[in-house]
Write a structure and sequence with these properties.
One of its GO terms (molecular function) is lipid-linked peptidoglycan transporter activity. This protein is mainly alpha-helical and 401 residues long. Helix content is 68%, strand content 3%. It has a 3-stranded antiparallel beta sheet with strand order 1-2-3.
Length: 401
């Protein structure tokens, strides 16, 4: 055990955040799975708890092994991963498991394990964009040589995700734009990207309207209309009403662990609305701790970005933290009725398999960069990282965010 602890490096604060969120996940999931257990497992809540514990333990192992890998290897993995994720997303759209009129999952035969291909695509895309930004810093202001090779892959992935999962596609595009802004992509190019994104969304709605193949489009329209047009509580969607009741009942300190009443009324209280359950049971104090945990993750990743002497590692750590924190904030905003209803989970807290695995892999990569930053900056550490893309960050990107 001592040998394992000695080999556990990287930012200790990020490790602490991971442990904290994992403990919160066990408490919140166990408290909110009563209705699910009775529907599927004859009331056996312990089985789901053990399953979540196994998934989180596997996630911690993934973080450990991922952080021990030289992060420059992920630059090479990004190229292969991007090539593979395109047909994988296409296959998901055409032949994926359909749940609630959305083809987001692929089922692996024999073991019957399902996973969301968008989770893989998000991880691979940020590695790929980080690689391209670092390699093209000298021509980043050139539209053809610098901007297009970065933005075309982003557009392809977002368009393949959007028909089944619009919220994920929009958040992924926004996170990539933010990373590109930090990577010195001219604002006029980012503005053109934003206009193109709005045009594509409108085009998707128009195609669905004229062809009659609406798919998820009508669901999006209904959610947006109900969000903007609800005049009073009775006009809100059912899940929004129950989430508001849960939050109001939580008060400052909450009702206490396991005392939530909304968990029996909310759809998917263990995933899409787990933040509402946390607020009801632990109050605004618990909600604030969760919010601060994600902000601390972001701040520590910014610290890694500022200290990393090479562009790829800096962009990689910051980009992956962006996608996790933005998803967390979007989940919280939906739960407190600041955004229209979406199916976003709370990273590392909501019950899940593939989402926890790929979130853990992203955190492991961030810690891998952090480990190498520590080795470079500490006396007696290595002076260079073998295989690093030779663009010094200090000459290429701003020192502060």
């Amino acid at each position: 055990m001592n040998k394992l602890l000695r080999k556990t490096q990287g930012d200790k604060v990020i490790w602490s955040v991971v442990i904290f969120l994992s403990v919160v996940s066990l408490l919140a999931v166990y408290s909110s799975i009563g209705s699910l257990a009775y529907r599927r497992y004859n009331g056996n809540t312990e089985f789901i708890l053990i399953k979540q514990l196994v998934v989180l333990s596997l996630g911690l192992l993934i973080i450990y092994f991922a952080h021990r890998v030289n992060y420059t290897i992920y630059s090479r993995v990004a190229q292969i991963g991007f090539i593979l994720c395109i047909p994988l997303l296409m296959y998901t759209l055409l032949f994926g498991s359909n749940v609630n009129d959305a083809s987001r999952w692929i089922k692996i035969p024999i073991i019957n394990l399902t996973f969301q291909t968008s989770d893989i695509a998000k991880l691979v895309l940020f590695m790929y964009v980080s690689r391209m930004l670092s390699k093209r810093q000298e021509v980043i202001t050139d539209f053809k040589k610098g901007f297009l090779p970065i933005i075309i892959p982003v557009g392809i992935v977002c368009m393949l995700i959007m028909p089944a999962n619009m919220s994920t596609a929009l958040l992924l595009g926004a996170s990539c734009m933010l990373l590109c802004f930090i990577g010195r992509v001219p604002i006029k190019y980012l503005a053109s990207m934003l206009v193109a994104g709005v045009f594509l969304v409108i085009l998707l709605f128009a195609i669905a309207k004229f062809t009659g193949y609406e798919g998820r489009v009508q669901t999006w329209i209904n959610r947006i209309e109900s969000f903007f047009q609800a005049d009073d509580h009775s006009d809100m969607p059912y899940q929004v009403q129950q989430a508001n009741i849960a939050i109001a009942g939580g008060g400052v300190l909450g009702k206490g662990p396991g005392n939530s009443t909304a968990k029996n009324l909310l759809p998917h209280p263990y995933s899409d609305y787990i933040y509402s359950i946390i607020i009801e049971e632990y109050g605004m104090f618990g909600a604030f701790l969760i919010l601060m945990a994600y902000f601390i993750l972001l701040l520590r990743s910014i610290r890694i970005f500022k200290r990393c002497p090479y562009a790829f590692g800096a962009f990689l750590s910051l980009g992956l933290s962006f996608t996790l924190v933005i998803q967390a904030l979007a989940h919280m905003a939906v739960n407190v009725n600041l955004f229209p209803v979406t199916g976003l989970t709370l990273p590392l807290v909501s019950m899940g398999g593939s989402s926890v695995i790929f979130t853990s892999l992203a955190i492991g990569i961030i810690l891998s960069v952090s480990r190498h930053v520590e080795n470079v900056n500490n006396p007696g550490g290595i002076n260079n990282v073998e295989g690093e893309i030779p663009q010094p960050k200090t000459d290429q990107v701003p020192q502060a965010v």
